[in-house]
Protein 1
Amino acid sequence: MSTKINFQGKVLSKSEKILIVVSRFNSDITEKLLKGTEKRLLELGIHQADIDVIIVPGAIEIPVVTSLMASQNKHAAIICLGAVIRGETSHYDYVCGQVSDGCARISLETKKPIVFGILTTENEAQAYERLGGNHGHKGYEFAETTIEMIQVINALRQ
Ligand code: INI
């Protein structure tokens, strides 16, 4: 018997609890990212009461909170939102490396959808292009990925 798993575009049959961990650094951008993500989650059938949000200072602080919350197993998925902008210093590379490694590790350790919703851009303009500009709205994409991955993981766990 062959298996085919493909939940692209399929909505959940019932709402699930979702956590969004969002960083305050570059808050003009991360607030728009959060708004777009929440809007699309609601369109896809998630109830507002099922969306928890935790705000942290910067992207570096996202993995520890995500790890703690993933281990409590209260949410079907965690969406990590942030904006890392290169600017002038090498800090960018450290921040990007730590947050991406951290999120990947938590997802593999907990076998939970941990959606990497961190914009990593050269400048602010590139970030805004991804918030309803030339590159669509990444918040919508992160919400859609979340809904799809909850269904993939649920199907594989049965
Ligand atoms: N945090 C971000 O979320 N984005 C950035 O662009 C950024 N830059 O460029 O410095 C940033 N730095 C702060 C970092 O995430 C931590 O909050 C800080 O290092 C304290 O741990």
Protein 2
Amino acid sequence: MIFTLPPLPYATDALEPVMSQETIEYHYGKHLQTYVDNLNRLTEGTPYSDLTLEQIILTATGPVFNNAAQVWNHTFFFNTLSPTPEKMPSDLEFAITRDFGSVEEFKVRFKKAATDIFGSGWAWLAQDNAGTLHIIQESNAGNPMRAGYKPLMTIDVWEHAYYIDYRNRRAEFIEKCWGLIDWKKVAGRMHEDILIAHIMDMAEVRTDGTVSETIVVTVDKKDPVEEKDMDRYVCITCGWVYDPAEGDPESGIPAGTPFKDIPEEWLCPACGVGKEYFEKER
Ligand code: MN
């Protein structure tokens, strides 16, 4: 099979100002084209040339896998974005609320997962065979279909995705991406049986041997313990502890304020990072 550059479903300047025309021209026009060219060069005259992109991703390793997955991932990413994105359909909102608590909580956790990926990679919203949604971090060209998940949405966190427009500010890039995600497309990718209850232990999926050692997959499981209003939260960058009993009066947070009720714009009084860098104290 000769792989070709997939069409970009909008003009190169259509995603401005979130993604500049220069970024798209490099990201789509140069990086993705290079992955397509490399894949053709690596597969020509080999058994891989008879396989589909998905079949190669599920079976190949090394450079063949890397370039095939990067072609698939970028095609999926660019087709998830839209200059005129549709809002979230009710079935997807139901599933996200069921599995993450709320759409806002999902966005906080996804942004944190995407920001925290060390080096190059992809953050994914994916669905398991039981219908449950998961936030999955993948390094390099990783794709959660290798571990049996159905990809629903992704954000590219390779530096080439944001460095022209955001320099080193990955978290800001991710936040801006929310304005381009076409949630109707994301919802359309869900398994039809999303209402099936949680019947699968994700640990079994993670240990069934289908995950290549070269791919780092971490599954962000929903905390089975209900959030308690008086739980203390720790800043993962500096260790400062938010105690609801004390609040943060100097920043206008009165004593008795649960962590979840602190405004999103609040910053760690010790080191200045945002709320998404806090984790519940264990
Ligand atoms: Mn990319």
